[in-house]
Amino acid sequence: MHLRVVTWNIHKGIGGVDRRYRIERILEPLRFYDADLLFLQEVDDGAPRSAFHSQAEMLARALGYRHFCYGPNVTLRRGRYGNATLSRWPLSQVRNLDLTIGPKKRRGALHARCRVRVGRRSRTVVLYNLHLGLAGFERALQLRRFLASHPFAGLHQRTPVVFAGDLNDLWGTLGPRFLDPAGFRRAGPLVPTYPAVWPFRPLDAVFVRGDLKVVRCFRSRMPVAREASDHLPLVAQLYLTSGASARGGSAQPAGTTSTGPTA
Predict the structure, then answer these.
(1) Does residue 211 contact residue 231 with C-beta atoms inside 8 Å?
(2) Tens place of pLDDT for every residue, the chain, 263 residues?
(3) Could you count the other beta carbons within 10 Å of the beta carbon of residue 210?
């Protein structure tokens, strides 16, 4: 079964250049890509700068997602912001893992599970939506904490896991140093997503583990996406096996190609 995943730091719906709050600019690319799973970072809740909107709920309702969860990390004088995961399937066991290091800004990894139908079977897919810190030592400590955390540390190697978000990975080194040794695979090559108007840093990423295959991964080239935030959306097309097919050999049928938007 094919799954489309989008990860995007939406910058509270505030344009990276004009600094104007226009949530409709966030909605247009997300409608176009029509993902099964959305991993969003810097999502406001009750903040004056974003018209006091509860953005996770607003986006879920506007885009037709019946299921979403929200993990607030930073508390403002009025309101808060954090990570939001939107899903086509029900979410369970939602938990916000604290990744804050000392006096640094509060950071988190939003954990959830969804149950996806694959042929006659259904499979649990484990989701992690992260926004890591700005300092190199901070990101290293955060990933070590994540890899040792419950329930991740107890997952079977075959369990499908999608790990996505704004990793602030300036040089693309977090995969080789931390995630690859833990069994993860990057979805596609390093793709610059920041700054949106002229991207040259691969800050955002999708990684998978277990019975998930990467079909393709690309950044959005929609003009409105360049205006909507200071990051560009990253789109990954994945293939989830039934489990039985993986034991029999190839997890993806020969000749299978990706479908859907490619802009």
Answers:
(1) no
(2) 999 999 999 999 999 999 999 999 999 999 999 999 999 999 999 999 999 999 999 999 999 999 999 999 999 999 999 999 999 999 999 999 999 999 999 999 999 999 998 888 899 999 999 999 999 999 999 999 999 999 999 999 999 999 999 999 999 999 999 999 999 999 999 999 999 999 999 999 999 999 999 999 999 999 999 999 999 999 999 999 887 544 433 334 333 334 456 66
(3) 22
The sign of the CA dihedral 58, 63, 64, 70 is negative
Q: CB-based contacts of 135: which residues, under 8 Å, 6+ apart?
A: 104
Describe the strand order of the beta sheet including 67-75 as a list of residue ranges.
67-75, 80-87, 37-45, 2-9, 234-240, 212-219
Euclidean distance between CA atoms 29 and 89, whole angstroms: 21
Q: Distances in Å between the alpha carbon of 4 and those of 1, 16, 243?
A: 10, 26, 19
pTM, two decimal places: 0.93
Query: In whole angstroms, what is the distance from residue 147 CA to residue 151 CA?
Result: 9
Statement: 2-242 belongs to CATH 3.60.10.10: yes
Residue holding tokens 């790990």? Answer: 163
Q: How far apart are CA 189 and CA 59, in angstroms?
A: 29
Q: Which residue in 131, 144, 124 sits closest to 212, CA to CA?
A: 124
184: left (phi over 0), alpha (psi -120 to 50) or beta: beta
Classify residue 51 by its DSSP letter.
T
Rounded to an integer, what distance in angstroms lies between the CA atom of residue 143 and that of residue 173?
12
Domain locations along the chain: 2-242
